[in-house]
Amino acid sequence: MAVxxxxxxxxxxxxxxxxxxxxxxxxxxxxxxxFFEGQRSGRLPPDQRLRWRQxxxxxxxxxxxxxxxxxxxxxxxxVKFGFPMAFTATLMSWGLIDFGRSFGAHxxxxxxxxxxxxxxxxxxxxxxxxxxxxVGDAFRDHSCWERPEDMDTPRTVYKVDPAHPGSDVAAxxxxxxxxxxxxxxxxxxxxxxxxxxxxxxxxxxxxxxxGPYSSSLHAAVCPCYCDYSGYQDELLWGAAWxxxxxxxxxxxxxxxxxxxxxxxxxxxxxxxxxNKHAGINVLISKEVLMGKDEFFRSFRVNxxxxxxxxLPGISGHPQIQYSPGGLLFKVGNSNMQHVTSLSFLLLAYxxxxxxxxxxxxxxxxxxxxxxxxxxRQVDYILGDNPLRMSYMVGYGARFPRRIxxxxxxxxxxxxxxxxxxxxxxxxxxxxxxxxxxxLVGAVVGGPSNSTxxxxxxxxVFQQSEPTTYINAPxxxxxxxxxxxxxx
Length: 487
Fold this sequence. Notes:
Blueprint: H1 3-12, H2 25-38, E1 80-81, H3 82-103, H4 107-124, E2 131-135, H5 138-142, E3 157-160, H6 167-183, H7 189-208, H8 213-216, H9 218-221, H10 232-246, H11 249-258, H12 277-289, H13 297-310, E4 321-322, E5 328-329, H14 336-356, H15 367-382, H16 406-409, H17 426-430, H18 461-464, H19 468-483
Antiparallel strand pairs: 1-2, 2-3, 4-5
């Protein structure tokens, strides 16, 4: 494919009905970080800025004799799911690692968001050869509509151990701790070392006792966060982050030795809390593009092939879909999780290519062209779309007002001190009124079909529910574009 064809496809994916807006990416970054304060579980610190939230689930883990206070609720419910929480921490850290200078004044608050997760993951891995992977009965929780401050559903604790393996969630947790250790290497060296030491032990457990946590804990974790792609990708992902954090040769050898067995080249245009293959290839390819390790050349080939699937109009590669308004689109729920995670990989890879003065082979697309595709997706989220709606709560003049989120949709404790019971919240769920509390910075699931339509309806959770793993990769994207507004 000729370079001119690549240019045409970039134009095609940016067509909207009126002139594009100029966005305040720094403001969007600040708001996107603020969202994580609304997802906090446990005792809230004095500097909590979303004041309509209060302490919740402060006794998590007590019934099992462990301290599991803290961490994040994954979405609009009140369960702490360890698998997506760890992925969230890994992606927030990756953004800071690659684009930390671009965060500017927001770097410290972004690190705080990471630490709220890594502090919890340290608690969840404090017992050797054990990872506590979930707090809360998802089925009981999902049958209620109540504030986290009021919740009275069982705070059941679930764990993986040698008799009940969970290589996927354990290796992702190891990745999160390893990535976090890089984030805090300069800011808090002692904490950084503790994170890395724990990551090494957790990865050893994940690799030694192999098996999917979806088998060990099927009734608890499925269908919410079943691991459909298997645990092999997480083992490579965890090893890749440990290699990056420790520079130990054993992880380099592990990656190369297991490249085929663990399926490094398996996935096409997929990256998220379940499937890490594309992320593995992009992360490891940096070693090759920076001239550090030809040993990993095959990972760069895989990364090139993956990136080519995201550039519409390129022949010879399976192509991801785009909506008429230019939104990257995958069939299923919560499409924005794909938009932000895949756009982050585009940006990260463009950065690695730039340092190597290289291009992707399909159509000779340049790093700048990859960045424009990623920026187009970010701009769509912020309002450059057929509905002229920002999909980030609190950003722009028009944004979702009826998000599928218990704490946001129910009156705050300060506004309504009396307890609102499990079923009493149903009236607020069914109400057509806007949510009383703004979950500033939350990015919802967004359009879930190819027509760019969005109902802004609480009941349509596939489109109206925010998640931590939608926002996590967005931090790095917004930081980069805030520092490079004229790209």
